[in-house]
Amino acid sequence: MQADSKRLVILISGSGSNLQAFIDQCASGQLRAHIAAVISNKPGVYGLERAAKAGIHTQVIEHKDYADRESFDAALADLVDSYQPDAVILAGFMRILTPVFVDRFLGRLLNIHPSLLPKYPGLHTHQRAIDAKDSHGGVSVHFVTAELDGGPVILQAEQAIDAHDTAESLAAKVLSKEHIIYPMATDWLLTGRLVLHEDGAYLDAKPLPENGILLD
Ligand code: GRF
C-alpha cells in the first residue's frame, strides 16, 4: 500500500456486494485507497466474511446495546473516527443516521440508494418502480445529509425494466451497475474532484445537476 493511500471506512448491514467491489478495486489499484475497517451493525452478515477474507479489520456495533439512537450514533461516530477515514461509505447500511453522526462526516459521507433519486427514497424501491410502470429503474450515489436519501446526488445509472422483471431480477441487474458507479464517485471524492458545498455537490468546480451525472 502506498504511503499516501486514502483511507475508507465502509459500513454494512448485509451481503456486502458493494463492499466486494471496493475490495476488488482497491486490490487492483483502480481505486487508489485502502479499506481501514468494515463496520456492521449486524453480527454474522456475509459482508463481514468478505472483509475478513480480504484481511480487513472488522467491527460489529449493535444498536440494541445503546439506550437511544443518538447514543448509538455517537458511539458509531467515535468508532469510525478512530480509523481517521478520508471517506465513509454506507454500503447497504440499513439504519437511519441522525445529525449526531452525519454532521461529523459531512462532505465525506456517501450512500448508494437503489432508485433514480429523487424518486423513491426509502424502502422497496424496485417494486415501487415496477408498480408505477416506470420504463427504467436505477441507482444513485449521493452525499449523505440529515435528510433521508435526500443529500445531493452525484452519479446515477439507469436500468431498463422489462415486462418479466420482478423486484429481485431488477435488483440483480441494478446491483451490477452499483458496483461500477459507487467506486467511481468515491474516486472523485478522494481525488478532490468532488466537493460538497452548502448549495450542493460540485465536480471539477462546477455544480452538479439535481440528478447528478447519468452514467451511460
Ligand atoms: C444495495 O441495493 C444498495 O443500493 C442499498 O443496499 C443494497 C446493498 O447491497 N443501499 P450489498 O450489501 O452491497 O450487496
SSE topology:
Layout: E1 6-12, H1 17-28, E2 33-40, H2 46-53, E3 58-60, H3 69-81, E4 87-90, H4 99-105, E5 109-113, H5 125-131, E6 136-143, E7 153-160, H6 167-190, E8 194-197, E9 200-203, E10 206-207, E11 213-215
Parallel strand pairs: 1-2, 1-4, 2-3, 4-5, 7-11
Antiparallel strand pairs: 5-6, 6-7, 8-9, 9-10
Helix pairs in contact: 1-6, 3-4, 5-6
Bound molecules: 5-O-phosphono-beta-D-ribofuranosylamine.
Residues 14-19, 47, 91-92, 112-114, 139, 178 line the site of 5-O-phosphono-beta-D-ribofuranosylamine (GRF).
Key attributes of the depicted protein:
6 helices, Rossmann fold, three-stranded antiparallel sheet, globular, single chain, alpha/beta, binds 5-O-phosphono-beta-D-ribofuranosylamine, eight-stranded mixed sheet
Beta strands, count = 11
CA radius of gyration is 17 Å
Beginning-to-end CA distance, first to last residue = 32 Å
Query: On the 0-100 scale, what is the average pLDDT?
Result: 97
Report strand %: 25-35%
Low-confidence stretches: none
Largest β-sheet summary:
8 strands, mixed
* Helix-strand pattern: EHEHEHEHEHEEHEEEE
Q: Domains counted in the coordinates: how many?
A: 1
Structural commentary:
- This protein has 216 residues and is α/β, with parallel strands linked by helices.
- It has a single domain (6-214), classed as Rossmann fold.
- It has six helices and eleven strands.
- The chain has helices at residues 17-28, 46-53, 69-81, 99-105, 125-131, 167-190; strands at 6-12, 33-40, 58-60, 87-90, 109-113, 136-143, 153-160, 194-197, 200-203, 206-207, 213-215.
- β2 (33-40), α2 and β3 (58-60) form a beta-alpha-beta unit.
- α5 crosses α6.
- It starts with 5 loop residues before the first strand and ends with a strand.
- The model has no long low-confidence stretch (mean pLDDT 97).
- 5-O-phosphono-beta-D-ribofuranosylamine binds next to α1 and β5.
- Residues 14-19, 47, 91-92, 112-114, 139, 178 line the site of 5-O-phosphono-beta-D-ribofuranosylamine (GRF).
